[in-house]
Amino acid sequence: MAELALFVSAFLAATILPFSSEVAFLAALSSDMPVNTALFYASSGNILAIVLNYFLGFWLYEKTKAKLLSSKIGDKSYKWGHKYGYFALLLSWLPLIGDPITLVAGLVRLNFIWFVIIAGSLRFARYYFLAQVF
User: Fold this and answer.
1) d(CA 18, CA 63)
2) pLDDT tens-digit series, residues 21-58
3) Residue 125's domain spans which residues?
4) Which of 6, 63, 116, 131 could form a disulfide with 41 if both were Cys (CB 3.0 to 4.6 A apart)?
């Protein structure tokens, strides 16, 4: 049951909901959940959520493209996203800004496989680092 709670917490935290999965991860470790188990459930939930974010951005593209390109800032953001998209993914593990980056990745049509490799690896690495310092 604790594993499911950790998975759901990590999933919801990687959406636009404002709370931290790191607290749930550390709580799971402090309640003697094995590190590998905690890493698996937290990373799985978080990575599944960023995949959802990516596809939401991907699907919303057609509905928002004309509106996005009609504004000066929107046009600039779109071009910036295309130019620096993969580099921006290096910040996708950060609180607050990371989850919107995963949504924009889908919006600007970054390659899904590279998206999962880069953003997913960083999500796992964040939990791994926390487990090491805990």
Assistant:
1) 26
2) 999 999 999 999 999 999 999 999 999 999 999 998 89
3) 2-133
4) 6
